[in-house]
Amino acid sequence: MKKKHYLLTRCIFSLVPLSMQATLPEKPNILLILVDDLGYGDLSCQGMGNDIQTPHIDKLLNEGIRCTNFHANCPVSSPSRASLLTGRFPDMVGVPGVIRTHKEDSWGYLSQEAVLLPQMLKQQQYHTAIIGKWHLGLASPNTPLERGFDFFHGFLGDMMDDYHTHLRFGNNYMRQNNTVIDPQGHATELFTNWAIDYVNKRKGEKESFFLYLAYNAPHAPIQPPAEWLDRVKKRESGISEKRAKLVALIEHMDDNIGLVYKALEINGQLENTLIIFASDNGGQEDAGANNKPFRGAKQEMYEGGICVAGGFYWKGKIKPAINHNFIMLSDIFPTLCDLTNVTLPHKIDGISVLPVLEGKEQITDDRIVHWVRREGNSRYGGRAYYASRYKTYKLMQNTPWEPYQLFNLADDSEERKPINDPSPEIYQLLFKGLMEHIRTSGAVPWQSVKDVK
């Protein structure tokens, strides 16, 4: 089958010969960078546009493994973060939708039975930290320190109403561990400074560290620093105001990621640090995001909402490659456990893609996977909508009210030509698999008891 969109690139690298790559060392430092609402085409290395320059993220993806077929577990934030940190489909840990301030508009509650990645890494004596956006609970018992992290410096909530005041509906969700703080400055720069401070303090420590650095950029509101916006406008003649703001916000974030990289390099930590980069979902269309070459955007089950930029970098350990394997955020959990020799005693939905990191061949799409999003308002009515995939076949709906459509992404990467015959064996495989998933996940509560009384 031809994989049309997987081959679209402006950056050319050869795949790694299998004989060149050895087994990766155990127990490296781990820097997991998750950005918020980044469009698939909104990195210059993706080759989908010429109005953006992201040299620091490009470096990670061009000198590491750039994954062309990397997927978030949901087209919105909380569910993807739940899958990233548990290795489960989001509704299997009680997070089918976005966790928000007001209970009548909150569609998830992280299960107390869910086991999070920092808890697993403690088996190998990792020091674990989250800096930036949490978005899996606003109060006890679902705060980072209560769910396995040793250190938290960041934002509990979903989005900030302003990158400088850091408030959401007038609430201050900024914390250092359990202490309410009121820092001054642009949120992207705060998270960067806190990350640099953390890696500096870990220099020379015997314990390896796991740092989950979760930026809220480039999520709305689109508020780049003025000097970054001026720079983009001067460079890109004719660019719209909306697009210029988003490009500037992304380039500002890219520059800050470069500062964290530089700190690791100065500290002598870089050669022993695996860096993972991904986005929680696709870009927001009305904010000016570029999700090319796909149809759809954030909130949608089309590929533009769930296929994201992603990759792995480890200086001197991982060789440059463009990889087309189907990989999900939920695969990071078992991959890191596999890498660090942590035993998994419980069921998960992701798979380890450690062979991909080692430059080996691996089949990763011979499995049925599911996406879910539950949402309120008049478009969704509190109901969930779904997608399922096996190899290149995808069954999906884009709202709860739509019939399912079946696509073959190998021949129709833009999802414009649904397969109209509902009888194919693949349709039944996906339909019945999704039905069983809905039945099974129905046993997992997604509201706290106190909120439904």
Short description:
This protein is an alpha/beta fold and 453 residues long. Helices cover 26% and strands 17% of the residues. It has two domains: 26-365, Alkaline Phosphatase, subunit A; 369-452, Arylsulfatase, C-terminal domain (2-Layer Sandwich), CATH 3.30.1120.
Question: Could you name the key traits of this structure?
Answer:
2 domains; globular; alpha/beta; 10-stranded mixed β-sheet; Alkaline Phosphatase, subunit A; 4-stranded antiparallel β-sheet; 26% helix; Arylsulfatase, C-terminal domain; 12 helices; 18 strands; 453 residues; single chain
Structure, explained:
There is one protein chain. This protein has 2 domains: 26-365, Alkaline Phosphatase, subunit A (3-Layer(aba) Sandwich), CATH 3.40.720; 369-452, Arylsulfatase, C-terminal domain (2-Layer Sandwich). The strands form 4 sheets. Strands 9-8-5-4-10-1-11-12-2-13 form a 10-stranded mixed sheet. A 4-stranded antiparallel sheet has the order 15-16-17-18, covered by helices on one side. The protein has a two-stranded parallel ribbon with strand order 3-14. The protein is built from 12 helices and 18 strands. It is an alpha/beta fold and 453 residues long.
Profile the largest sheet.
10 strands, mixed
CATH architecture classification of the largest domain: 3-Layer(aba) Sandwich
Lateral arrangement of strands in the main beta sheet: 9-8-5-4-10-1-11-12-2-13
Radius of gyration: 21 Å
- Compute the average pLDDT: 94
Helix content: 25-40%
Q: How many alpha or pi helices?
A: 12
CATH topology of the largest domain: Alkaline Phosphatase, subunit A
Question: How many structural domains in the coordinates?
Answer: 2
Q: Count the E strands.
A: 18
Q: Which CATH class of the largest domain?
A: Alpha Beta
Q: CATH superfamily of the largest domain, called what?
A: Alkaline Phosphatase, subunit A
Q: Segments where pLDDT lies below 50 for 5+ residues?
A: 1-21
Spell the H/E element sequence.
Answer: EHEEHHEEEEEEHEHHEHEEEHHEHEEEHH
How far is the N terminus from the C terminus?
53 Å
What's the shape? globular
